[in-house]
Amino acid sequence: MRGHLSSLHPQLLFSLKASAPAVTADIIFLVDSSWSIGKDNFQFVREFLYKVVKALKTGGGDFKFALVQYSGSPKTEFQLSTYSSVQDVLFHIWSMPYLGGGTRTGLGLEYLIEQHLTAAAGSRANEGVPQLVVVLTDGRSQDDVIPPSSVLQLADVDMFAVGVHHAVEWELKEMASKPLERHMYNVANFSALRDIVGDLVDNVYAAVAPSAPAEVAGVNSDQCFLHVSTGISTHLFLFSSTDQKDIVFLIDGSNNVGDDFPSIRDFILRFIEPLDIGIDQIRFSVIQYSDQPNANFYLNTYSTKEQVVSAVNGMTLLQGDSANLGAALTFLKDTVFTQTYGSRISEKVPQILVVLSTQRSRDSVRSPAIALKTAGVVPLTIGAKNANANEMKIVAIDPSYSFVVSDVPVISAIEQQISSLATALTAEEVETLVSKGKLTFNWFLLQLHLLSKKANKSIGLF
């Protein structure tokens, strides 16, 4: 089964094509240049880096490169944003000096996080571009590699560890991503580095190249397997090919809505009208929020379309002085989009959320929105009246899935577009969107680490 990208919103389709070539990645080399290597062996290191970069670019990928040497202290050779030409990268590698010094691999990793995995240094992680780090070391680190390695793995940075001669295997295992057989190398001497160039390049491509749907023998015709790149690693998902979706409407029920509530109710009824609602087809739920969220009905409350239509017709405004959209999104993740309340998220049935807001949220929406999207939900947002446009973009799975209109009755002008986006997405397209959200969440975690370190330094903890 293939996804039909033509059914995606035109702006989103353009952004996916433009920002995600067949193979794209930011690759940072962290290279040991301590005294134990020596000048003669360091030439083998230059040769290794040169051949890896040349082989990667020969394959036609959209790669950016950065290089950091480390010994007693790290030193930037060049950042991701320094060179636009691979020839300049290769020339720099071939002419870089040998530093000498101790072996503080942990400090090198921390330096890389703080100085190179940032937008200012040229990282495209916040655009969904995979981040890869290749560490080359020849001996035991004089400091701890575990804390920075854990941060990088939490942020889904793909780590390749290359050990030479006296490198310590358990340190390589701590730094390398899984599976280790594709991310960890340990060679006897520096001249042997040339023997692993081809394998390393193949594994880099395998880590970042999106794969096509696979035909799998013995799978029944209502199912298919799909390899999906999350931007860092490739996972195998099992999708149902039947027309199943779980659709939740989260609507502003505060006093700010007022007399516009009947228009919202009518919009929902028109949205429902063409849907095949049923316990084994499309499940539907409506949640209102103001000071607190409140469920009108869950995904498993009703089993027929007639029951859902009757419930929507009977809805009244929740009321409340404020609108806490952040709390409502958390409620959706922890309650509504769970198996107990009828969600089939564990069965890989697409989870679609339509958010309708009429004012700025009193609480923060960023973290709850990222957590919800990371869980596998695709939000579309509609802002009306006094809604904040930027807030709607933050909550949406992609800015092109966010709409702002002047007033609630004007929603009728875009309701066909909303309906098409929410109901026409295939499982593959949903997984593509969700994968982008997961990478954003991992990048968000990395930024939290950096902020925490800066705060701790300011009060003298480091």
UniProtKB/TrEMBL annotation:
Residues 26-204, 246-418 form the VWFA domain. It holds the Pfam family VWA. SUPFAM superfamilies: vWA-like. InterPro entries: ECM_Assembly_Org, VWF_A, vWFA_dom_sf. One of its GO terms (biological process) is cell adhesion. Gene3D superfamilies: von Willebrand factor, type A domain. GO terms for cellular component: collagen trimer; extracellular space. It comes from the Eukaryota. This is VWFA domain-containing protein. It comes from Erpetoichthys calabaricus.
